[in-house]
Amino acid sequence: MIKIQTITDVYPAIEELIIELRTVPQLKLADTLHHRMHMVTWTSGSELLEELQNIFTDTLQSSDVKFPAPIENQIQQIMHVIKRHA
């Protein structure tokens, strides 16, 4: 998995995460992330990052979804960098 150190690392990390989620399979989250990244027109990068943060927060709080540790760690790292950037 991509090491996430800066906000510019978030975007390729999410692309990689989408691929990983499809193999688990967590298709709903993969499709949601793909849609937000490629189909929605955002007025600013901050708006997209806020939406991604909300998606990840809701997903991790859901008792219906369980991820392998590497995927959950990647999500946590993405969330940390987004939060630090805000």
Strand content: under 5%
Name the average pLDDT: 92
Residues in helices, as a percent range: over 70%
Question: What is the element string, with H for helices and E for strands?
Answer: HHHH
Low-confidence stretches are none
Cα radius of gyration in angstroms: 12 Å
Oligomeric form of this entry? single chain
Q: Based on CA inertia axes, which overall geometry fits?
A: globular
Largest sheet: none
Kindly name the structural category.
Answer: mainly alpha
Distance between the termini: 23 Å
Whole-number count of domains: 1
Count of helical regions: 4
Tell how many strands the DSSP assignment holds: 0
Describe it for me?
This protein is mostly helical and 86 residues long. The protein has one domain. Helices cover 73% and strands 0% of the residues. The protein is built from four helices and no strands. It has helices spanning 7-23, 27-38, 45-61, 69-85. It is globular.
